[in-house]
Specification:
By secondary structure, the chain is mostly beta strands. About 0% of the residues lie in helices and about 55% in strands. A hairpin with a 5-residue loop joins β4 and β5.
């Protein structure tokens, strides 16, 4: 069983920065991609950023381009999300997700970490 454990959320003011981490542990698992999703109250869970493991190719939602940066550890199944220039609209629960080579869906999910941005 693969488990994703997130850390790094918190309460900050607008313009601040945070770094989220997510480590995939469990049986031997090589992700095809890992991603961060965000869910704000009353809204859907939306993709924020994604990184593909083989080549490091990244994708960002338009709302976070230029402010957020996704990266991965060189040797561990760990993904990071650097959040900068935070806005109140960035508040929500951030979920880490992982996809294996054999799946087209985000199979594994973390428990979520809360990010609250206040003005």
């Amino acid at each position: 069983q693969v488990q994703l454990v997130e850390s790094g959320g918190g309460s900050v003011q607008t313009g601040s920065s945070l770094r989220l981490s997510c480590e995939a542990s469990g049986r031997t698992f090589t992700p095809y991609a890992m991603a961060w999703f965000r869910q704000s109250p009353g809204k859907d869970r939306d993709l924020v950023a994604r990184i593909r493991w083989p080549n490091g190719e990244t994708f960002y939602a338009d709302s976070v381009k230029g402010r957020f940066s996704i990266s991965k550890h060189k040797t561990r199944n760990t993904v990071y999300l650097q959040l900068s220039s935070l806005e109140t609209e960035d508040s929500g629960v951030y979920y880490c997700a992982a996809r294996s080579y054999s799946s087209t869906d985000w199979t594994y999910w973390g428990q979520g970490t809360q990010v609250t941005v206040s003005s």
